Amino acid sequence: MNERSRLALVVWSVLVSQVLLYPGLDETVSALGGSDSILAGTWFLVAEFAAFVVCAVLWGVVSDSLGTRTPLVVLGAAGGAASYFAVALTPYVGVGFGVVLLLRVVGGAFTIGAFSLSITMLMDLSGGHGRNMGAAGTAIGLGAALGSVVGGQLATLDPLAPLYGGGVLLAGATALAATVPDRNAGGGLPIGAVVRRVRSRPTLLVPFAFGYIDRLTAGFFALVGVAYFRDTFGIDAATAGVTLALFFVPFAVLQYPVGWLSDRVGRFLPVVVGSLLYGVTIVAVALAPAYGVAAALMVLVGVCGAFVSPTTMALVTDIVPPTERGAAMGGFNVFSSLGMLSGFVAGGTVTELYGYLPAFLVAGGTEIGIAVIASRAVYRISSEGNSALSSA
Questions:
Q1: Which of the 8 DSSP states describes residue 202?
Q2: CATH of the domain at 268
Q3: Alpha helical stretches, state H, the chain
Q4: Which pLDDT score is estimated for 127?
Q5: Based on the structure, what is the number of domains in the chain?
Q6: CA–centroid distance for 57 within its chain
C-alpha cells in the first residue's frame, strides 16, 4: 500500500469515527446523561469541534516548526481513541453530562491533529494538488458514507456502540500512521515566521471562506438533516444512516476525479458553479413532498458537494509554497471547524425557534451567497495558478 493510500485511510478512519455518532445521536446523548432536546445533541457535537477550532492551526504550526508530521499524527490518533473509550465508559462510573462534554473537548484537541496533519502529508506528496486533495476528499466522503450506515445500525443495537467503534478505528489509525515515512517538505520553520507568512497571504481567506460554508452545511446535515428526516418521515436511526449515505456515497466517489479534473481545467467552475448548485439542492430537500423524493435529492446534494470540496482544498495548495502548507492547512481546518460549529449551533437554534424549512433556507442560502460574493476572487486565483497546475 503506497503512502497516499495509507494517509487516506487515516483520514477515512477519523471521519468514520465521527460520523458513527450522527444517525443515533439522540439515543447516544440520552445514554450519556443528556436531555432529549436537540440542543443537548448540539452541545455534544459542539464540544469536539470547539477543540478543533482552537487546536487545528497549532498542530500545523508545530509540525512545520519541528520539521516532522508522522509522530504528531500518531499522537493525535492515539489521544482520540482514548477519548472515545473514556466517553463510552462514563455511564458506568457515574459522572455527569458535563464531564462527557469535557472529554469530548479533550478528544477533539487530539483528533484534529491526526486529521489535519494527515491531509497536510497528502499535500506534501508529488503527483498534483488536485489528485492528492481528491484522495483526501474521497477518504472523507467514503468515511462519512460508511460511518452513517454503520453508525445507524450500531445505534439500534446499543447507543454506546458507535463510541466503541470510533475508538477501535482511531486505534487502528494510530498503528497505520506509524508506518508512513515522514517527508515533511517544510523542513521546519520558526513558528512566528510561519504565522506571519500565512497572515501575509490574504487570498487564503477565499478557500477558508468556502471551507467554512461547506462545513457549515455538513454540520447542518449531521444534526438538523438527521432530525428532519426522522421527525418528518418517521424513520429510525438505521434508515437515517442510509439516508445520509445517499449524500456521502456520490460525494465520495466523485472527489478524486473532480480533483484530477480541476488540475486540468482550473478551480473556478468546480468551486463556484458547484457551490451554486449545492445550495439550490439543499433547499430543495426541505421542499420534497415525500421521503422518496427527498432521498433522491440527497444524491444530487452529494454530487454537487463533490465538486466543491477537493477543489477548495486544492486552492490552499495553489496559494502557498510547500514550506507553509502545514500552517495553511491548519488555518483551513480552523475555518472548517468553525463552519461545523456554526452548522450545529445555527441549525439547531433556527430549527428550535422557526422550524426545519427556515433552517434549510439559511444553510442553502449561505452556500449560494459565498459562490456569488467570492466568484471573482476564485477566478483570479484560478487564472494565476493555471501555469502551476499544468506543471504539477
A1: G
A2: 1.20.1250.20
A3: 3-19, 25-31, 38-66, 70-93, 97-124, 129-157, 161-177, 191-199, 205-220, 226-233, 237-253, 255-265, 268, 274-287, 291-319, 325-354, 356-391
A4: 61
A5: 1
A6: 15
Q: What pLDDT score was predicted for residue 330?
A: 67
Dihedral sign, Cα of residue 197, residue 199, residue 200, residue 204: positive
Contact of 345 with 42, CB cutoff 8 Å? yes
Q: Could you give the C-alpha distances from 255 to 60, 137, 259, 304, in angstroms and in order?
A: 24, 5, 6, 11
Q: How many CB atoms lie within 10 A of CB 178?
A: 13
pLDDT tens digits, one per residue of 214-247: 889 888 888 888 889 999 999 998 999 899 889 8
DSSP structure class, residue 1: -
| C-alpha–C-alpha distance, residues 327 and 137, integer Å | 19
- Check: CB of residue 328 under 8 Å from CB of residue 319: yes
What are the phi and psi torsion angles at 161 (to 5°)? -60, -40
454506546: which residue's cell? 160
- Per residue in 133-184, pLDDT (tens digit) is 667 777 877 788 788 889 999 999 999 999 999 999 999 999 999 999 886 6
- Indicate the pTM of the whole model: 0.76
Domain that holds residue 287: 3-391
54: phi then psi, degrees, rounded to nearest 5 = -70, -40
> Beta-strand (E) ranges in the chain?
none
Cα–Cα dist 224/282, whole Å: 12
96: amino acid identity, one letter: G
Cα–Cα distance, 185 to 204 (Å, whole number): 20
Q: How many other C-beta atoms are found inside a 10 Å radius of the C-beta of residue 207?
A: 30
The two most distant CA atoms of the chain are separated, in Å, by 61
Residue 294 φ then ψ, to 5°: -60, -40
Q: Which helix (H) or strand (E) holds 93?
A: helix 70-93
Is residue 126 within a helix (H) or strand (E), and if so which, with residue range? none
